[in-house]
Amino acid sequence: xxxxxxxxxxxxxxxxxxxxxxxxxxxxxxxxxxxxxxxxxxxxxxxxxxxxxxxxxxxxxxxxxxxxxxxxxxxxxxxxxxxxxxxxxxxxxxxxxxxxxxxxxxxxxxxxxxxxxxxxxxxxxxxxxxxxxxxxxxxxxxxxxxxxxxxxxxxxxxxxxxxxxxxxxxxxxxxxxxxxxxxxxxxxxxxxxxxxxxxxxxxxxxxxxxxxxxxxxxxxxxxxxxxxxxxxxxxxxxxxxxxxxxxxxxxxxxxxxxxxxxxxxxxxxxxxxxxxxxxxxxxxxxxxxxxxxxxxxxxxxxxxxxxxxxxxxxxxxxxxxxxxxxxxxxxxxxxxxxxxxxxxxxxxxxxxxxxxxxxxxxxxxxxxxx
Amino acid sequence: xxxxxxxxxxxxxxxxxxxxxxxxxxxxxxxxxxxxxxxxxxxxxxxxxxxxxxxxxxxxxxxxxxxxxxxxxxxxxxxxxxxxxxxxxxxxxxxxxxxxxxxxxxxxxxxxxxxxxxxxxxxxxxxxxxxxxxxxxxxxxxxxxxxxxxxxxxxxxxxxxxxxxxxxxxxxxxxxxxxxxxxxxxxxxxxx
Lengths: 370, 192
What we know:
Chain B: InterPro entries: UBA, UBA-like_sf, UBC, UBC27_UBA, UBQ-conjugating_AS, UBQ-conjugating_enzyme/RWD. Chain B: The active site is at residue 88. Chain B: Belongs to the ubiquitin-conjugating enzyme family. The structure holds two protein chains of two kinds. Chain A is mainly α. Chain A is built from 18 helices and no strands. The termini of chain A are far apart. Chain B is an alpha+beta fold. Chain B folds into two domains: 4-122, Ubiquitin Conjugating Enzyme; 125-191, no CATH class. Chain B is built from eight helices and four strands. The chains are: A mainly alpha, B alpha+beta. Chains A and B meet through helix 14 of A and helix 1 of B.
């Protein structure tokens, strides 16, 4: 029992750790998410009803009969796994299967969205509410998740703001840096059980079959972002997901390479004003020619060619950005611009994601310190 | 509005290595709109030994717009007007880049002196001579350098005037002055 509950816990909780990330990543639309959650919940409730009626032992499948042929198929493919597991774990009780089954089912049925997963988790908890500690745990997590979920739904913009502030703080003073940091710990604490499980997840062979396939790309996708200081991981965990949600990290890094490698002029070669942090992170042209945002804007108003290579600037990010972010974010415009230009993206989110790049932050801090 | 901070910095930078490049820029007026640039004639060209002054006018949009440059010293060159001193050089027109400076622009002008482009002439007469009678072009350019671009021959008109007042015909004075490279005493000996 003990071993099983331990085995069962990591699975939903590992999923849980993923969830914030996934959620943020898929945070395109809260409505869609809510809709999915509701739908999922209903499904599971109906499954629970069916189970209470029809299934004598309550193993896996109860809910799967009604929904859809596809799910049946999934269920079947999962059954051997569950059975095998039960065989391995001597005290395979009925509940365990329902526990281990529900998360293992999730990656298959809701692979593309963390939101669905939340729903299924809650489904798992509801189906196993009467059962083991594993189920109990997953129930807790589910609640947290849902809280989390809502927090994130409304807090996502706040998150962006935090990181904008962060950037401002880097340019101005260090104090603001506390605020995003102090913001994140609560979130981290909420996820803490999940996080612990997340840690054990990598070590746990049990988690491999279900989540391994999903975890691996996830982790590798993030390597770039937080490999530098793993130690600080928990603090910036919410941000991690954002970085992960970069559509194309490789491309971003490719674009960033000249940024890192080119020597950093201390003043704008055009106007001879000192480059501030924003300017130094601004690489408008692949040729590596740097200039301040004011001069860049002025050039865009005129012939729009890079002073360094005389090639026309590829896009006019100011207009693009303005239309994307809207008027309320005008203050961010310049910075967004720089980020977008550097990354050659048009999506406004990226900018804050780039801000989250810890190496970048460290660079900024160093620059302020010096 | 001209970016005076940048102009100031350019002037400082330029004065730093004026010895090395021989290129100087100095303000003509207090407001830094009118400047005067100085370039030495490139070695191995008919302009060798001459010092050429270039009037620089900074437009309001500088450095986003190119500075207006014009030879104040008379030059015999296919791409420089022998009348007005106007310069035909792409970087002073459509190929200007804000990353260029007065110094780099003057360096380009200096390079133009050593590499005329007769296919894209500013002064058609000079260009024709360059293409059809290169030797004459070289000697004329050298004479103009001697006559107008050398400190010692700055007042060639004064010398002509002086010799003419001595009673020599002006045309002869000019041809002999040209032959001796503007040296007043040598010309006088010849004339005598």
